[in-house]
């Protein structure tokens, strides 16, 4: 089949959005019908079972954050409106793994920060 770059990028962005949204919902213990509203969730201590589940998902989340950072600058900037609420929610999530916090920090300093500075 013939794929164009816009379709591939759109599918990639949607897949990344779904992965991050699912993790955010899992970390908050929330199973939402709608994935369009992402907001801060109250901080509830994680059960050891849920913490193990989140820890097992951490490599996928880290890989997803790193993959998002590989988007070309214009694509990253164009899709930042989709990713920024998710990134903000991830910052407030209680994680089973420190690796996610490290990946978030790197993403914010290397990819998101420069976009925000250019827009000022």
TrEMBL record:
It comes from the Eukaryota. Residues 4-109 form the Sec7/BIG1-like C-terminal domain. Residues 31-51 are annotated as: Disordered. Pfam families: BIG2_C. This is Sec7/BIG1-like C-terminal domain-containing protein. It comes from Opuntia streptacantha (Prickly pear cactus). The lineage of its organism: Eukaryota, Viridiplantae, Streptophyta, Embryophyta, Tracheophyta.
